[in-house]
């Protein structure tokens, strides 16, 4: 059984999936990779099946439902069921540089429970991100840090390595938010469970093909969720070490 499982949620990623999977398999060849497709109408699921047919290290889960949160949680549970000790989460659009994964995994191997590939720490290389998204990301992360009492600079990054030992102490079903808010909630839940968090600078290139699925409504919903949590007294404060 693999020590590392890479989870790649997909919906309409036919233009980028093959390249992304190829780079991930090259960067971390010892890992097992699972593509979780939410019934993409553009043929992404069929492409995933073809990729898996030619590579024993690539698996596919087809789902009828749609949603990033539920896809990631299903991937985490699948990884734990297969005995993985580390779960990598990344996007299918190729924005995050797969070459950074070995460093994230090395930090994880040192005992860190959540390693975040950060776009907003010294040494990161962010390219082609539009001014609007860059400003909103910076402001949104600063707001969440202040409201939730955490020092994490990039709470919304989708490139992460979780150790399954901390996931066992997180009530995944209790997290009912999606998109950016889900990433923030997971970091807070890990901290509350007594888990350690580290950020590693990464390369990020805004997708050249396809369109981002993030919309203004989702960005506003994230700010609303953070405000609600803060008013309810939710803070990224750890329990006593396990």
Key terms:
17% strand, 242 residues, 9 strands, alpha/beta, 7-stranded mixed β-sheet, two-stranded parallel ribbon, 8 helices
Care to describe what's here?
The strands form two sheets. The chain has a seven-stranded mixed β-sheet, sandwiched between helices. The longest helix is centred in the middle third of the chain and has 18 residues, at 131-148. It has helices at residues 17-27, 44-53, 68-81, 101-109, 131-148, 164-167, 179-192, 216-231; strands at residues 4-10, 32-37, 58-62, 86-89, 114-118, 125-127, 160-163, 197-201, 203-205. It is built from eight helices and nine strands. Helix content is 40%, strand content 17%. Strand 2 (32-37), helix 2 and strand 3 form a beta-alpha-beta unit. The protein is α/β, with parallel strands linked by helices. The mean pLDDT is 93.
Q: Termini separation (Å)?
A: 26 Å
Number of strands: 9
Radius of gyration: 17 Å
Mean pLDDT: 93
Describe the structure concisely:
By secondary structure, this protein is an alpha/beta fold. It has helices spanning 17-27, 44-53, 68-81, 101-109, 131-148, 164-167, 179-192, 216-231, and strands spanning 4-10, 32-37, 58-62, 86-89, 114-118, 125-127, 160-163, 197-201, 203-205. Strand 1 (4-10), helix 1 and strand 2 form a beta-alpha-beta unit.
